[in-house]
Amino acid sequence: MKKIYILVLFAFVVNYGWSQEMPLKQRADAFPSVVENSSSKSVQMASSVSEMANWNRYPTYETYLAMMQKWAEDFPTLCHVDTIGTSVQGRLILSMYIEKQTDDEMYRPEFFYSSTMHGDEVTGYVMMLRLIDTLLNGYGSNPQYTNLIDGTRISINPLSNPDGTYRGGNDNVRYAMRYNANYVDLNRNYPDPFGTLPLSSQQRENTAMINYFNDHNFRLSANIHGGAEVMNYPWDSFTTDENPHPDRAWWIDVSRRFVDTSRTYSNNHFRDTYSSGITAGGDWYVISNGRQDYVNYYHNCREMTMEISSDKMIDSEQLPEYWRFLQHSLVNYIEEIHSNDLVVGVNEVKYNNSIKCYPNPTHDKVFLSEEPLDDVLVFNMQGQRVAQLPASTRVIDMSSLPKGIYLLRTGNKIAKIVRR
Is 201 helix (H, G, I), strand (E, B) or coil? Predict the structure, then answer.
């Protein structure tokens, strides 16, 4: 009887699957972390730019700075270095801003990659450096890279928590820790759109990152972590049953494309957490004050969390292998910014008509480009109606509403408004 039951259960799973996939391992950042013992790791450091040539080492802090400076000098018409800010201990938080310098007024959407906000999750640090190198050196010879740089403003921040990564000194990452120099988890230190206050005052690194987002108009971004291999899309603050993200279907498609592409180069990866390799963050483990939810809610930007290595710090000689199976997925994710859905904007693709409004983003008032024939309804991202105004209203005062993303609807026309 037991055999029959097992066979029936197996057949059900194969044919229909579980209603909700269960995680195979705990979320990497679910609980307070301890400093990992890296004594058994094979960690080779590069003390010069030339020693990074084979990409099988981690750079010293000075080598990292030299690499960023050299790219800016070697490709002056394709990139420049932005200083996002400085860390608690005064180290630079940098971003390589890649765009083809032209005189035309063509709109080019802005994309952002950021890595290693947890200082001991350093695989992404080297992946981002190699991505910068690959894009710049491939311009003019690789059509995909050329088209991306011609049509996109790409910002890549390889290291957003330098104090955590170089906790043991600028010449080694072996003693890296998760936190910043104040022993604060930067991924629990962002303003929470759903009302949870951070445990610590806003850290210098996060203030700099928030200002960088305010200064740009990023439409798509990702923050890169380690400790698991899974594409983690919003929300982090809720389970899907509690509050599914409005763009959940889009996120699932994008995440699957990332995982499927990587598995064509190495079928063993993205299997340690979910067999599908993807999850909504809250379905894995609910967290508050994370960067992902902050960016999605406040900045009119779709951001996801990419957990790209089961070990937070992989052996140096494994870095080329990880690049082999991640390279095309990382590049293709940038290309997602040109999908019709993302260009139109959150949710607007579902509607044939839109109404123009300005300024957008706004701090207070929004002006409609035409006189509405129907009542004007304003909804927050939880689907709650927060305002109803009569037909013919041309000015909407949003100064009393919390900062965030809102949907304006009048008749069959819709607009998305960002209040900052």
Answer: coil
- 192, 131 in Cβ contact below 8 A? no
166 and 176 in contact (C-beta within 8 Å)? Answer: yes
CB 205 within 8 A of CB 293: no
Terminal-to-terminal C-alpha distance of the chain: 63
pLDDT at 383 over 90: no
pTM of this prediction exceeds 0.70 = yes
Residue 85: which H helix or E strand, with range?
strand 79-86
State the Cα–Cα distance between residues 90 and 348, nearest whole angstrom. Answer: 43
Q: Measured between alpha carbons, how far is 211 from 209 in angstroms, rounded to an integer?
A: 5
Report residue 314 CA to chain centroid gap.
21
Cα angle for residues 159, 161, 165 (degrees, 5° grid)? 85
> Over the chain, what is the mean pLDDT?
87
Class of CATH domain 45-344:
alpha beta
Ordered DSSP codes for 353-379: EE--EESSSBSSEEEESS--SS-EEEE
In order, the DSSP letters of 140-151 are TT-HHHHHHHHH
Task: Kindly list the domain boundaries of the chain, sorted by start residue.
Answer: 45-344, 351-419
pLDDT > 80? residue 37:
no
Name which CATH class applies to 351-419.
mainly beta
Dihedral over alpha carbons 335, 336, 337, 341 (to 10 degrees): 150
Decide: 112 and 218 in contact? Cβ < 8 Å: yes
In this structure, are residues 353 and 413 in contact, taking their beta carbons and an 8 Å threshold? Answer: yes
